[in-house]
């Protein structure tokens, strides 16, 4: 004759409870990950209340009523910890992902991301025979500014340059910090005339802001348009634009030079 083993029965009950509690975690995890910390906390509270309600209506008896409240609090604590851990993990992941593509200081694209995107644009422009323009911007006398006003002021200038340039750009344009005090802008589908309008506007805007803050720097800018015989590699495109910017530097700084690449 079959006689149920009480310890086996209680083990099965325990297993059921654990699995049910785990099910509460799934919506909390999903909402926290996709909806954010605040929504996650709301769902954690709702789920903890649901858990307490289900527990009390299941006929579960405790040797002391305080145990029910203690268990409910522990369950809520677990839900809350999961919410907080997941939101911290997501923030960290987002930061890491952003750092892989952007410059930590200015938020502009970093050299690697800029090169990858530019390579795609070069391939597209070559295939469809569309022009594009690259503007290479170097801050003049930046070292002196750092020396006179401090590194933090220098950082602020770099951030201001990136922010101002970005406010003037279209969503399809790119803005990157290539290193130190050097920035590059990319204008797809833009010939020299269109690039002239936008770069002179950016230059005016930058100079105005520098003057307003009494930062003694100017900008040397080389703007190179590619129409035919577009080079194959990003490095060539960047080096050519850099050389044009250097021509401005060697000619007294604080100016823009435009050119069309002819191969
Ligand atoms: N504040 C700050 N300074 C930086 C950063 N990265 C590089 N620099 C400084 O930028 C300066 C760049 O110096 P240079 O390339 O000689 O530039 P410059 O003084 O503008 O000289 P010209 O370009 O000839 O006008 C160096 O002093 C670097 O230390 C940064 O992230 N923050």
TrEMBL record:
One of the record's GO molecular function terms: diguanylate cyclase activity
Pfam families in the record: GGDEF
Keywords on record: Membrane, Transmembrane, Transmembrane helix
Keyword Transmembrane helix annotated: yes
Enzyme class: transferase
UniProt key word Amino-acid biosynthesis: no
Reported cofactor(s): Mg(2+)
InterPro entries: Diguanylate_Cyclase, GGDEF_dom, KdpD_sf, Nucleotide_cyclase, Rev_trsase/Diguanyl_cyclase
Domain GGDEF, residue spans: 130-261
TM region positions: 21-54, 66-89
E.C. number(s) listed in UniProt: 2.7.7.65
UniProt-recorded name of the protein: diguanylate cyclase
Source organism: Candidatus Contendobacter odensis Run_B_J11
Lineage per the UniProt record: Bacteria, Pseudomonadati, Pseudomonadota, Gammaproteobacteria, Candidatus Competibacteraceae
